[in-house]
Specification:
It is a single chain. The chain is mostly beta strands and 105 residues long. It has a single domain, classed as Jelly Rolls (Sandwich), CATH 2.60.120. It is built from no helices and 11 strands. Strands 1, 2, 3, 4, 6, 9 and 11 form a 7-stranded antiparallel sheet that branches. It has a 4-stranded antiparallel sheet with strand order 5-10-7-8, with no helix packed on it. The model has no long low-confidence stretch (mean pLDDT 96).
Length: 105
């Protein structure tokens, strides 16, 4: 999906890692929440309460998911799932654009 309709946008940005990762939250009429963001090169660890589906919209990211000992590269057009109540590691080598969908379980 290239475009979202009938949404509410939270104006205040989510800023992490000294501004190297930023996102904006969007909320759909049914209460579904997503964030759209940009990651600058660096190494990051994120924790999540909800299950997440991360879509790579531009660039690429090396991801180490919970239970894995290795990183897997995800490129533009690919996605991965992060289980709820977990953390995951990212290595970003180029500016990367992403969409994160939060799934209530």
């Amino acid at each position: 999906m290239e475009r979202f309709e009938n949404i509410t946008i939270i104006k205040k940005a989510n800023v992490y890692f000294d501004g190297k990762v930023t996102s904006r939250t969007i909320v759909f009429e049914n209460g579904e929440k997503k964030t759209l963001g940009i990651m600058l090169p660096g190494e990051y660890t994120f924790s999540t309460a909800d299950k997440e589906i991360m879509e790579v919209l531009g660039g690429s990211m090396d991801v180490k998911l919970p239970g894995s000992e290795t990183f897997t590269k995800y490129k533009e057009g690919e996605s991965f799932i992060v289980p709820s109540h977990s953390s995951f590691d990212l290595i970003i080598k180029e500016v990367s654009d992403y969409c994160c969908s939060y799934i209530k379980e």
